[in-house]
Specification:
Elements (H helix, E strand, L loop, with lengths): L11 E2 L1 H11 L6 E5 L5 H7 L4 E6 L2 H7 L7 E5 L7 H4 L7 E6 L5 H12 L4 E9 H8 L9 H7 L2 E9 L4 E2 L6 E8 L9 H12 L6 H4 L1 H6 L4 H8 L12 H13 L3
Parallel strand pairs: 2-3, 2-5, 3-4, 5-6
Antiparallel strand pairs: 1-8, 6-9, 7-9
Length: 266
Amino acid sequence: MAATRKRFGQHFLEPVWAGKVADAIAPLPGDVFLEIGPGPGILTLKLASRVARLIAIEIDRDLIASLTPQLPPNATIVAGDVLDLDIDAALPPTDTPIRVAGNLPYNISSPILFRILDLESRRPIKDATLMLQREVADRIVAKPGTPEYGVLSVLTQWRADVVRLLAIPPGAFRPPPEVRSALIRLTFRPPPFELTDAAVFERMVRSMFTQRRKTLSNALAAFATERRADVHRALAAAGVDPRRRPETLEVIETARLADIFAAAKS
């Protein structure tokens, strides 16, 4: 197996686990896949043999050089950092639905997740099956009222249904990470309603969870001031008790509250 590079946060999946992950992803013959971080290609080759087309993004040029000769004709690899690359240019036309898979580096998994959400806002993505540090996966799938519920939970669940597929032990990777991992699937769907301003929604969510232990009337005070809005009036219009805390709001309650702030006039 190829040597790992610490600076890229590389932990390569062992072959026996690659088979389990590929089966959990459940690729179909007509699928078009975007794989993030193929590494030495253990999962890549299993997926490519079962789908119509696969495009992989890899930052490590040594790994690209060793993997490229092994790829079947329906698979291509693009060199670059997924956080900076023009992903749209690497993919088929925008009306082609794609699926995403990836063993994400733990140190940048959240920014990559937000890149996937951004990509889905511009083109059809059926689902994304991702290997993540277990604590990050816990935050993505968390329900309201739990300590893990926060920014990742709300912004992801607004756009997708999320399920945990596999618990993955450290021994499934080489070198073994110091943390446990999980495989989750995001199945994208239209949100419950169209937001007036998606940017306001995201800013409000990020702002209120920086003070998650405070009541909503206090946690939203700074954001309301930024919007030149009255926080108590907004909460009353949304039918939300100002004494509640941010982590108690259902995703749809949070979105409705953000829409009230978005409509607020100077």
